[in-house]
Structures are given as structure tokens and as C-alpha cells.
């Protein structure tokens, strides 16, 4: 009888953990993807330039880069789930206050939510690896699908919500705090398990090693991570303006961004499973960059409804590249601690690379009075992703020892 109760309790807490992964994943993109379609609404009201608008989506990426390196140390003290719980509280506050008043609160709230998302980005791969060691590909796929479904939904419905007289753009931004509130409730329900189950309540060792910075594979994963973020976050910010320059209105642009993100969903689920079964992921990494490239070529030259096809192709490339980046943290390491260190390195340096995207492209578009040059920059980044994917996809694992030499996987 006691064994039966124990098994029931274990299934209950496992179910809650899966729900927590789903809802935390849902909070990691929706607060950011909801901003791009709303730019025409608040740019006019707040009287801000393209450079300042670019800063709104650059700040979270800077926060990712700056705070990602601190996550393992904080997590090692408090554990993964308590750290994620605190991050969800911070995220809820950041989402809510950014739309309360003018530009200063918008920027401050954006920094807060960026800090919170940085914790989720770094800890989720380690949480999945420690909690579901035999279903890493499946759980990474579920995590990625949830992130992208809600990211697409946020892009698609933000303008319709903002267009309702009783709501406006402020409520359209704030509504996404509901997801983080649900995540908080689930994590609170999981507290008894988090305190008693060592397997789930993992304390990541923060033994920062110089060896990881000497690893060619680690740097390939890091730059792959950075550039595969550079393109989507630039598009989240500026794709509405790019589409509106082609004759689409705000609502159409919002839904076209949603269609782009819907292209991510099948691949974010399938790609990790395929990657986990492959001896190496070099071909998959190269294909991800080429899909990005040809999709962006279509976005550059097509101005009709046919643009849906290259948008979906770009989304498929983004989904494949993102899923591979998440899988590399696991596949290129030997332990949870190494996975966390690689994740921290890749996301701290990678997101600093990505942070240049929204601000840089917005400034260039303003100077050149068009989007051709920014789109060419994105296409060059896509080709670099294809090249880096062939290196990061090698069947090797990093070494964080003193020699820092990558080791062939046995």
C-alpha cells in the first residue's frame, strides 16, 4: 500500500515537473515576440527612434549575455527549481511594469524580464538532462515546441488585443505575465519534491574551468548559439517593419510573424529526436544554416502573399538551429555540471553576439532608408551558421580539464 502511494506521489510530481517545463518554456519567448508587432503602437505614443526601439529588444539579449555566467553559481547554492521559481517571480514583475508608463519603465521592465529569461535559458537544458536522462531528445523537443507555440501566439494576437479599445498596447504586453504566474503555482506545488528528490533538486557545481574556453567545439557551439539567436531576435524586432515596407498592414505583419514561428514548431520537436539518434550532427547543422539563408533570400525579394513560403522556410531553419544548439549543450558534454558550464558560456557570449542584431540592423535601416542591407547581413550570418554547424556537430565532447583538449566520443 505504501509502495502504491509512493508511486502515485512520484507520478504526480513528475507530471508537475513536465507541466513546469512546458510553462517555463512558454515564458521564454512570448514576452519578447509580443513586442515587435506592437512597435507601431508605442513608437508613436512614446516618440522613440528606430535605434531606441532596437534597444528594447537588445536589452534582454544583453541581460542574457551578462547574467548567464552567474546562473550556475546561484543555482549551485539554491538548486535549479528554487532558482527558476525566483526567476518566474522576476519575470512576472518585469512583464507587468514595462507597460505601466513611459520609456524608462519600459526599459527597466525589459531588463528585469531579460535577467529572468537568462536563468530559464541556462537552467532548462540541465534540468531536462538531470530529470529525464533517457528522454533528452523528446523532452527537449517538448520544451522547444512549447516555447515556439507561445512565441508564435504572442506575435499573432498582440495586435488584435492592442486594437481592442478597452485593452491597448499596454495590456497586450502585460497579458503574457499570466504564463509566468501559472509556472510559479506549479513550481510551488513541486517544492516538497524539489527539497527531497536529489535527482530533480540538482545543485550544479560552479567550478569554472579555463579548459572550456580552450575548446574549439565549445567555441563552435557558442558562436552557433549566438548567430542562431542573432537572426530570430532581429526578425522579432524588425520583421513587422520589413513586411509593412512591402505593403502589409500591422495586423497582417503580426500574423505573418506568427506563420514564420509556426515553421519552427515541427522542427523544434523532430530535430532533437533526430539529432539524438545520429552519430554526429554536422549535416543537420549545415542544413539549418542553409534553410535560414534561402528563406531570407525569399523574404528579401518577394512582396506578395507568396512570402509565406520563405517565412516558413526561415522558421524551419530557426527551429532546427535552436533545437541543435540546445542539444549541443547535452551531446557535447559528459556531465550535468559540464552541460551547465557549456550552456552558460554559449549563452553569455552567444547572446552578446545576438544583442548586436536589433540595434545594429535598426540603425543601418535608418541610415540606408531601407531593409536591403540588414537582410544581406542576416544572410551572411545564415551562411556562418551552416559553417559552424559542421564543427559543432562533430562527434566529440569537450574537456574542461587543464589541457582543454576535445575528446572523440566513444
Automatic annotation (TrEMBL):
PROSITE patterns: MFS. Residues 15-396 form the Major facilitator superfamily (MFS) profile domain. It is found in: Cell membrane. It is a multi-pass membrane protein. The chain crosses the membrane at residues 12-32, 52-71, 78-97, 103-124, 136-161, 173-193, 217-235, 255-276, 283-302, 308-330, 342-365, 371-392. This is MFS transporter. Keywords: Membrane, Transmembrane, Transmembrane helix, Transport. InterPro entries: MFS, MFS_Cyanate_Porter, MFS_dom, MFS_trans_sf. Pfam families: MFS_1 (PF07690).
Amino acid at each position: 500500500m505504501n509502495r502504491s502511494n509512493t508511486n502515485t506521489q512520484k507520478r504526480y510530481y513528475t507530471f508537475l515537473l513536465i507541466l513546469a517545463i512546458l510553462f517555463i518554456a512558454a515564458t521564454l519567448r512570448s514576452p519578447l515576440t509580443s513586442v515587435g508587432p506592437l512597435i507601431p503602437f508605442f513608437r508613436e505614443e512614446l516618440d522613440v527612434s528606430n535605434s531606441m526601439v532596437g534597444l528594447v529588444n537588445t536589452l534582454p539579449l544583453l541581460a542574457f549575455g551578462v547574467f548567464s555566467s552567474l546562473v550556475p553559481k546561484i543555482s549551485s547554492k539554491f538548486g535549479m527549481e528554487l532558482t527558476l521559481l525566483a526567476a518566474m517571480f522576476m519575470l512576472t514583475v518585469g512583464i507587468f511594469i514595462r507597460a505601466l508608463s513611459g520609456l524608462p519603465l519600459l526599459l527597466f521592465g525589459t531588463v528585469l524580464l531579460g535577467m529572468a529569461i537568462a536563468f530559464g535559458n541556462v537552467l532548462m537544458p540541465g534540468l531536462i538532462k538531470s530529470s529525464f536522462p533517457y528522454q533528452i531528445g523528446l523532452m527537449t523537443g517538448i520544451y522547444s515546441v512549447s516555447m515556439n507555440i507561445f512565441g508564435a501566439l504572442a506575435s499573432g494576437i498582440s495586435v488584435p488585443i492592442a486594437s481592442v479599445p478597452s485593452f491597448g498596447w499596454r495590456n497586450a504586453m502585460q497579458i503574457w505575465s499570466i504564463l509566468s504566474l501559472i509556472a510559479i503555482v506549479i513550481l510551488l506545488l513541486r517544492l516538497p519534491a524539489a527539497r527531497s528528490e536529489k535527482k530533480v533538486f540538482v545543485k550544479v557545481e560552479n567550478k569554472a574551468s579555463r579548459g572550456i574556453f580552450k575548446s574549439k567545439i565549445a567555441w563552435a557551439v557558442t558562436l552557433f548559439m549566438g548567430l542562431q539567436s542573432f537572426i530570430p531576435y532581429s526578425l522579432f524586432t524588425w520583421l513587422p517593419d520589413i513586411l509593412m515596407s512591402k505593403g502589409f498592414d500591422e495586423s497582417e505583419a503580426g500574423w505573418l510573424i506568427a506563420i514564420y514561428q509556426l515553421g519552427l514548431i515541427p522542427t523544434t520537436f523532430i530535430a532533437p529526436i533526430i539529432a539524438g539518434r545520429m552519430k554526429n550532427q554536422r549535416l543537420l547543422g549545415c542544413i539549418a544554416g542553409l534553410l535560414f539563408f534561402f528563406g531570407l533570400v525569399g523574404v528579401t525579394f518577394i512582396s506578395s502573399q507568396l512570402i509565406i513560403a520563405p517565412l516558413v522556410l526561415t522558421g524551419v531553419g530557426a527551429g532546427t538551429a535552436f533545437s541543435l544548439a540546445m542539444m549541443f549543450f547535452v551531446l557535447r558534454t559528459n556531465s550535468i555540471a559540464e552541460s551547465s558550464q557549456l550552456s552558460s558560456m554559449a549563452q553569455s557570449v552567444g547572446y552578446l553576439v545576438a544583442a548586436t542584431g536589433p540595434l545594429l540592423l535598426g540603425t543601418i535601416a535608418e541610415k540606408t532608408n531601407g531593409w536591403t542591407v540588414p537582410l544581406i547581413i542576416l544572410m551572411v550570418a545564415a551562411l556562418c551558421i551552416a559553417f559552424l554547424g559542421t564543427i559543432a556537430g562533430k562527434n566529440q565532447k569537450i574537456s574542461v580539464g587543464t589541457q582543454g583538449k576535445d575528446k572523440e566520443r566513444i
